[in-house]
Fold this protein.
Amino acid sequence: MTPARPEPPIPVSVVGIGADGWEGLPEPSRTELREADVLIGGPRQLDLLPPACAGERIAWPSPLRPAVPRLLAAHAGRRIAVLASGDPMFYGIGRALAEEAGALRVLPHPSSVSYAAARLGWPLEDVEVVTLVGRPAARLAAALHEGRRLLVLSAGAATPGEVAALLRDRGFGPSRMRVLEQLGGDRERTGAETTADAWVQAPPPGDPLNIVAVECRRAPQARRLGAVPGLPDDAYEHDGQLTKRHIRAATLGVLAPAPGELLWDVGGGSGSIAIEWMRTHPSCRAVTVERDPVRAARITRNAERLGVPGLGVVTGAAPDALAQLPVPDAVFVGGGLTAPGLLDACWAALPPGGRLVANTVTLESEALLAAACRRHGGELVRLAVAHAVPVGGFTGWRQAMPVTQWSVTKTADLPSGADR
């Protein structure tokens, strides 16, 4: 006798809802909400539902993310409908539910981004979206470039003021700002266009449900920071422990960051390698390890200033400080090469396909890199940079200390002492 097949799990319905509430929902979305045994959402969203939606109503607790698996498990076997703002799969609860639920049925609603682009006449493919919901405002700094259009997802009524203050602080005070509130609802309001400078001086009251539109304009005296590695050295606060601009650009080129990858920056100094790794793509991640607490604090300030406040900073000496870090896609060693076991620990931590790059200016460390290259392969190069400087009434070249660089891709999980 053929055993009965187990019943498939009941999909969790994720229903997008806008400021227009129940009236703005299509009939399939209404049906899901009316027939649900359990309705989960924010208090504001639950209040938008009529009595006909008779399921048990549960407001998300705070913090929200850890509660997702617990609530799904507590109501397993029942028809669950989760309310989300706009499009649940665009910076919404849909991501967490997709990771935890056995099956999903998503019924999206136009997002606030879609409404904002429609109201402003901005083609969405030319707009960068930055969310500040549950994230520090400092991450906006990495998106500031002359002429770029940004849509900033707000965490509340205070977000436009935070955006304006950051724009002014980073030299983008002339940027044009407009705040759009309650998009798609009967209380929709599009504020008058102003500048970030003017907003800081006289911030108007606003609604917590808003999105901030920014057209970036750099002040004439403000520093221009490009989108590729090799920022000016004086963009960093440092005490001399800094991978200099031209070497930094060459090093990032070999490290070859790709979206979603994780870098270990060992011997962080001022954090420049990790910071510029993260600036290459919003999903790039990095952890920097620095034994000096003063320098570690300086790395944190540099990361916030340059728009990557998510940089992890570990204060401790390598290799011991590496033990609990997540598996990296790439490792950069910029200091401490002579620490016993450091190179071996970095090599062992890399998965196949991972990259390791190490720079040094000393003969002792250079010998270690030459030996490692013999064992594991890769490439040794010497990078030399000279700057034109005044020599009396003339101009001559001043040579910086040459940098020896070893770069290698791990092709197999060989023992650290094995010869290739």
